[in-house]
Each structure stands twice: as C-alpha cells, then as structure tokens.
Amino acid sequence: MSIRAASGQGLLDSPTKNKAAKQLLKAPDQANVQDPTQRPKGSKKKLILIIIIVAVLLIGGGDFYLKSKAKSITYRQGEAVPLGKLVPLTTSLTVNTADGDVVEVGISLQLTVVANPKTILADHPLLLNATIADIDKWSYTSLLTSVGRAGLQSDLLESYQGILGEVHGAAEQVSAVYFTTFVQQQ
C-alpha cells in the first residue's frame, strides 16, 4: 500500500468517490453527528396524521360524553318529569269488590320519559296482583261515583309507583293510571 493511499488522497481521486471513504476523512466528531435543525422527511406527515387521529378521537369522545349525559338526566323529588309512552297494562281484568260484586277493568299506564317499557312488562304480574288487591278494598257502591273511581286510580298509581320504583334520581316511572274500560255488575 502506498503512502498516498494510506493518507486518503488516492481514495478521493478515484472516479467512484466512495462515500464511506469521505466519511473516514471527516473529523471524528463530525462523522456521526446530524444537523439538529434537520428533521427526517416523513416526520411532518406523521405529525399531521397523529394530530388528525387525536382530533377525531376527541370529537368522537366528546359526542359520546354529551349523548350519555343527555340520557342520564336526574330529577329532584317532586320535579315534573315529561310524559312518555302510554302502555296498556290489561285490556280486561275481572275482579271481585270488597262486598262480593264484580268489576271488569281495562287499564293503561302513562309512563314518563325515564321509564323503560321493558321493565314495566317484566313487572307485569306484580302490577296485576296490585290491581286485584286494590280493587278488592273498594265496595261496589263506592266505585259507582266518579270520586270513588278517582280514589281507586290514586290507589293504583301509588301501588304501581311502589312496585316500579324511581329512576334517575327521584323520577317516577308511572305518572297516571287510566281506565280504558270500567264495568260493574251486581
């Protein structure tokens, strides 16, 4: 090997101008150091992609949070709750009164917006049992008047609310009881 090749002068004169040889000739402190102001070419695209993904996740998460908050509104005791669906409890139920006469009733329930009709249907046997027990407390003559029937509706509402309970704070699931049929027979 000649002195000229060992000093590196001959390597630079070669037509290929080898990059590795040029790196060897540089000062050792500059050989592996990159310019800190220079970023890799793909970093801007990656940064933009990350920002877009984070923005989409934040918007989607915020939308989910707001929708879940809208569904979970709580009501205070005595606060009016908007009306929901009208659900038939029974079309025809025949029950004996306290004095042995017969009453045939059809009942619909006015639900509130917080009520779940599926839960109401699951408690259907309990609601029918409460209906029979409440009608059995009233006499034939007391149910002849509108005041007596309104009293029975009030008793039924109280019984149904006790069975179904409260949701979303203090909101009742049933707000009214309606008689769709009411026939008495002595």
How would you explain this protein's 3D organization?
By secondary structure, the protein is α+β, with helices and mostly antiparallel strands. The protein has two domains: 3-25 and 43-71; 83-185, Band 7 domain (Tetrahydropterin Synthase, Chain A, 2-Layer Sandwich), CATH 3.30.479.30. It is built from eight helices and five strands. The protein has helices at residues 3-7, 9-13, 19-25, 28-31, 43-71, 117-122, 124-136, 146-164, and strands at 83-96, 102-112, 166-167, 171-172, 174-185. The strands form two sheets. A three-stranded antiparallel beta sheet has the order 1-2-5, covered by helices on one side. The protein has a two-stranded antiparallel sheet with strand order 3-4. A hairpin with a 5-residue loop joins β1 and β2. α7 (124-136) packs antiparallel against α8 (146-164). The longest helix has 29 residues, at 43-71. The radius of gyration is 41 Å and the shape is rod-shaped. The termini are far apart.
Task: For this entry, give a set of tags.
22% strand; 5 strands; three-stranded antiparallel β-sheet; alpha+beta; Tetrahydropterin Synthase, Chain A; two-stranded antiparallel sheet; 186 residues
Summary, kept brief:
By secondary structure, the chain is α+β, with helices and mostly antiparallel strands. It is 47% helix and 22% strand.
How many beta-strand segments? 5
In CATH, the architecture of the largest domain is: 2-Layer Sandwich
Quickly count the domains.
Answer: 2
Mean pLDDT: 79
CATH topology of the largest domain: Tetrahydropterin Synthase, Chain A
